[in-house]
Amino acid sequence: MKLNRLNALVLCAIVSTNAAAAQVCYESLTETTPVDNFSQLSNGVVQDKTTGLMWTRCAYGQTWDSTNSTCTGNAVKITWQDALQLSKNINDGGHSDWRLPNIKELATIVEKRCVDASVNSVLFPATSPENYWTSTTVSGNEGSAWSIAFYSGKNNTKDKLLDLHVRFVRYAE
Asked: Which of 2, 43, 80, 110 could serve as a FRET partner for 155 with CA atoms 20 to 30 Å apart?
């Protein structure tokens, strides 16, 4: 079968879209989220020793696989309002007081020396390099909230009606 130019371009786009981008870390830069700064708990949760915050290791929609120390399944994208409501029903790691992090909190888990995804992949494996919601509304624009783009580690604003990924946080006891 002979492919015409348009079909070849479409096929190429599909193949490149499905190819997973590999995380790139620049070893010459200072690590911002070293493993030693976190307690890795057996229940799919990590605790930041510096901030006192406890994080779900997996994004919403994924499940912690303790045998292989990874997150399985696909992260689910939801609206900002759904993320706020959903956090009230999360019971991960034996805790039921999870919430959506604010912009400053979510920024604390960005690994600034890495891209695609900008996280410590030991602590937060299988993190999708996409935007994640925060609870912080944009000042002067009630219809938008801050998010972190985990492909680059930069913050940005998104319309609250868009579907983005979510990672939950709580205060450690």
From this structure: 43
> Is residue 127 within a helix (H) or strand (E), and if so which, with residue range?
none
Output the six-digit token pair for 31. Answer: 């690590």
d(CA 162, CA 29): 33
What b/e string do you get for 112-124 counting C-beta neighbours within 10 Å, with b at 16 or more? bbbbebbbbeebb
Mean pLDDT for 139-161 is 98
Residue 38 has which token pair?
């976190």
3-state secondary structure of 80: helix
Distance of alpha carbon 141 from alpha carbon 149, whole angstroms: 19
| Mean pLDDT (the chain, rounded) | 89
CB 148 within 8 A of CB 115: no
Say how many residues make up the chain: 173
Q: What is the pLDDT of residues 90-135, one digit of tens each?
A: 988 889 999 999 999 999 999 999 999 999 999 999 999 999 999 9
Q: Is 98 exposed, middle or buried (0-12, 13-18, 19+ CB in 10 A)?
A: buried
3-class DSSP state for residue 114?
A: strand
Question: Can you give the pLDDT at residue 102?
Answer: 98
DSSP state of 94: T
| Closest residue by Cα to residue 48 from 131, 135, 107, 94 | 107
